[in-house]
Amino acid sequence: MWDETHDTSIPEPGGEGRVGVIDMGSNTLRLVVYDTPTRLPVPIYNEKAECALGKGLAKTGTLNPDGIAKAKIAMMRFIHLSRAMGVNQLDIVATAAIRTAADGPEFARQIEQLIDHPVHIVSAAEEAELAAIGLTLGTPRATGLLADLGGGSVDIIELDKGRFDRTDSLPLGHIRLPESAGFDPDRAMDIVADECSRRSWIENLGGKNLYLIGGTFRALARAFFALTHYPLHVVDGYTLGRDEARQLAQHIINDDKKLVSNIDGVRKSRARTIPYGAMVLSGLIDAMVPDKIIFSGYSMREGQLLGLLPEKTRTQDPLLAGAAGLAERTGRFAIHGEEIYHWMEALFPPKRDKQSRLRMASAIVSDLGWSEHPDYRAEHAFFRVLRLPFAGLTHSERAFLGLIIYIRYNGEADNELISPVRTLLSDQNIEQADIIGRALRLAHTISGSAPGLLSGTRLEIEGNFLQLRILPTDILDRSFYLSEAVERRLRGLAKSLNKKPEII
After folding, report:
1. Are 289 and 323 found together in one domain?
2. In sequence order, what are the residues at sequence separation of 6 or more whose Cβ sits closer than 8 angstroms to the Cβ of residue 419?
3. How far is Cα 171 from Cα 175, in angstroms, rounded to an integer?
4. Are 51 and 194 in a shared domain?
5. Is residue 184 part of a domain?
6. Distances (CA, A) of 191 to 134, 273, 316
7. Which of 70, 140, 240, 477 is the least crowded, having the fewest Cβ atoms under 10 Å away?
8. 386 closest CA partner among 360, 425, 350, 338
9. 55: domain CATH number?
10. CATH number of the domain bearing residue 368
11. How far is CA 455 from CA 347, 410, 426, 459, 481, in A?
């Protein structure tokens, strides 16, 4: 089913204004700016500064002096950038290092005076809940345990179909853990095991999912991509079975320092933290015994962002909202996705489910490749869809949606370009993608991608025939809809359905 907690209608165009979040973490400070807050937004700017405020905190109990100096410079830049970008709602949140350091509150007060803007120091429970809100942006009915790994702590929260329950904070951040262990990996593993065993309630979640959030966990996912030659390098929605995740984590812990230091898109400073992230993951798996491990590309920042948005915006389906925003920026003549979706309905079962949601998304973004060179439209559209920065998609759904759009632009399902992601798709997925893609191709051929013209036709299945019915209209002569291109693409769709084409 389309998830009932989300508004699954296609949102209206976004309004004016921008919102932003500055996350003051134990290792990095990050500014993220989002546009059009009347629709679920995607980031238009994202910058981080590595300040290592939490470096040495386990030993001294205070913030890193060098980090304080760097953080003040970064915050001055971030506040000026946000004002120059027209951000009219800005939240600044400080997490574990500032929360636990003896001089954390004084540092926050100094920042407030420096930039003339309030800083909110979140509690451990609040931080965990904000992370959970960020996760449920894409997984609204998540059930199991969420672990948010930062520099100073691992904040955990129990999830039950999207609702929040027990929370805790473990002193296992990727800066704090190695310092506490004296940079001894064996000692670090013992600390992780000890801290996880103290939270006996984690055992009660066995058999449910373990969700992972945070920069080090994202870097760990990229290390797993490299180890397994995984075909889709998108962290959000990356899913592993328990045994495979444990084996990969142990591989990172035991060796392959060369591997983690040469991962594309991972800074060397982040690569040094990956083995400790693997230790935390291994410890949580041993303590919880989850069914699956699911990485999320979303975090506390998205949770904080949602609090800045109207209720109507917060309940939008993230995939459909993101697709609608993309269509507004890339479409030509604004043919509406709903128009195409309803025109195709006769080809599919009359129910709303996961596949009908993906059909709607594919209809919305089906004109995104029009500006590319014709020889490369299919290829570029395919890879663009695979990497869409939207929540609410599993990796198999990304591959399915990408294949639909590839076929819509005259690609073929058996092309070797598709081979790397074929392992994410079933034979039935491929057959359905072929039908949907060809239906989209026919819809755009009939209408020229202009709005309002498809209503002069109707698709029907009658016995062994796929019929394209041309309806009476006072505006256009019915011969308007007849062309060699229309007939050719109707034949292609009919063949995909094992039917004979007929124009009535």
Report:
1. no
2. none
3. 10
4. no
5. yes
6. 28, 16, 42
7. 477
8. 425
9. 3.30.420.40
10. 1.10.3210.10
11. 16, 24, 33, 10, 11
**Helix, coil or strand: residue 125:** helix
Is position 4 within any domain? no
The CA distances from residue 441 to 150, 434, 491, in Å, are: 46, 10, 12
Same domain, 230 and 322: no
Closest by CA position to 208, among listed 294, 145, 133, 140: 145
- 144-149 and 120-121 strand pairing: unpaired
Whether 433 is covered by a domain: the verdict is yes
- Could you tell me the end-to-end alpha-carbon distance of the chain, in angstroms, rounded to an integer? 35
pTM of the model: 0.87
- Measured between alpha carbons, how far is 42 from 329 in angstroms, rounded to an integer? 13
Show the domain range for 93.
Answer: 18-122+301-309
Place of tokens 């995984």: 230
Of 74-83, 233-242, 343-352, give the lowest mean pLDDT range: 343-352
Tell me how far CA of residue 195 lies from CA of 59, 186, 286, 303, in angstroms.
18, 15, 12, 26
Residue 158 and residue 276 in one domain: yes
Q: Are residues 339 and 274 in the same domain?
A: no
Distance between CA atoms of 256 and 246, rounded to whole angstroms?
A: 15
pLDDT at 11: 46
- Among 248, 266, 297, the domain boundary falls at 297
Alpha carbon distance 223, 225 (integer Å): 5
d(CA 115, CA 231): 44
288 and 329 within one domain:
no
Among 275, 309, 343, identify where a domain stops.
309
Q: Which residues of 153-187 are buried (b: 16+ CB within 10 A; e: fewer)?
A: bbbbbbbeebebeebbbbbbbbbbbbbbbeeeeee
User: In terms of domains, do 275 and 157 share one?
Assistant: yes
Taking only the tens place, the pLDDT of each residue in 193-230 is 999 999 989 999 999 999 999 989 999 999 999 889 99
Q: What CATH number should be reported for the domain holding residue 151? A: 3.30.420.150
Contact by Cβ (8 Å): 253, 279? yes
State how many domains the chain has: 3
pLDDT value, residue 395: 95
How many C-beta atoms surround the C-beta of residue 268 within 10 A? 10
Angstrom distance (rounded) from CA 378 to CA 388: 15
Say if residues 341 and 29 touch (Cβ distance below 8 Å). Answer: no
What pLDDT band is residue 326 in, cutting at 50, 70 and 90? confident
Kindly state whether residue 12 falls inside one of the protein's structural domains. Answer: no
Tokens of 438: 């060809």
Residue 139 has pLDDT above 90, yes or no: no
Tokens, residue 356 = 């009908």
Q: Is 264 exposed, middle or buried (0-12, 13-18, 19+ CB in 10 A)?
A: exposed
Burial of 439: CB neighbours in 10 Å, binned 0-12, 13-18, 19+ = buried
**Separation CA 41–CA 322 (nearest Å):** 7
